[in-house]
Amino acid sequence: MSRKSKHGVWFRELFPFTFVIALWLIHIILGFLDKDPGQYALMPRSREGLWGIVTAPLLHADFGHLFSNTIPLLVCGFLLFYFYRQIAWKVWIWSWVLTGILVWIFGRTSWHLGASGLVYGLTAFLFFSGVFRRHIRLMLISLLIVFLYGGFIWGVFPFDPSISWESHLCGALTGVLTAWLFRKEGLQRQEHVWPEEDDEPDPVVDAQPSSFQTPPTAPNPSTADLQQDFSHLLDDDSHTPVAHPTESTSNPRFIYDYRPKANEEKPDEDRTF
């Protein structure tokens, strides 16, 4: 990896921390200069309030307001730039600008400032992006967001008039929109394609002779066939055939023994040569 690419990776992953440090510096400098941050905030449907689309997320009413947005920005920003590196910048800019535009159009006639709209945009994106993509790791991020910031859902309702619930609602809607628009970019769920079973016979197996074939059964010889085969013995007067049926009744066979005639001289068993 080249030195330039390494610097790009470090800047991308450390950007949320740099952004939070910049927010604190801006708030400290404005307090030191005794400047009212409200004059740079967003005023809906007014020409002066158009600048607030860009500057409102950089301004906070007090340190308590700033601290409440610091931890979510660090956590959600790190998750965004680590797991969605290819689209992190686009999601960040869309959540910033589109939220401001929607608040400028639909917000109450009052000064709106703070990074809470950006926070709601990032949290909504991280949650719904894991749901839309159905990726295991990204769905775990969605569960983590629910566990950490599930209570943010109450911020989109107008319970407290001093809170810009319009920024929260518009930021959440922007997060859902960006999660849907960029669902085809970045990490995707891997589809497992199982091979289809082939019903055709295997030519290699079929080419081999089967060893389980039953050998052909030899036909049982009949009595006439046996007599014909041994007719040369029957024609000789010096031999008397004696037939003995075998014990098997299903397959009758005949055994022929050779016995000399009674008048034939028996060989002398004690003769020596």
Tally of structural domains: 2
Q: How much is the radius of gyration in Å?
A: 49 Å
List SSEs in N-to-C order.
Answer: HHHHHHHHHHEE
Number of strands: 2
Describe the structure.
The protein is an all-alpha fold and 273 residues long. The chain has two domains: 8-181, Rhomboid-like (Rhomboid-like fold), CATH 1.20.1540.10; 223-257, no CATH class. The protein is built from ten helices and two strands, in the order H-H-H-H-H-H-H-H-H-H-E-E. It has helices at 3-32, 52-55, 63-83, 88-106, 116-133, 136-149, 165-181, 203-207, 223-229, 231-234; strands at 242-245, 254-257. The protein has a two-stranded antiparallel ribbon. A hairpin with an 8-residue loop joins strand 1 (242-245) and strand 2. The protein is elongated. The termini are far apart. 27% of the residues are buried.
List the helices and strands and how they pair.
Layout: H1 3-32, H2 52-55, H3 63-83, H4 88-106, H5 116-133, H6 136-149, H7 165-181, H8 203-207, H9 223-229, H10 231-234, E1 242-245, E2 254-257
Antiparallel strand pairs: 1-2
Summarize the structure.
The chain has 273 residues and is an all-alpha fold. It is built from ten helices and two strands.
Question: Can you give keywords for this protein?
Answer:
Rhomboid-like fold; 10 helices; 273 residues; 2 domains; elongated; disordered C terminus; two-stranded antiparallel ribbon; mainly alpha
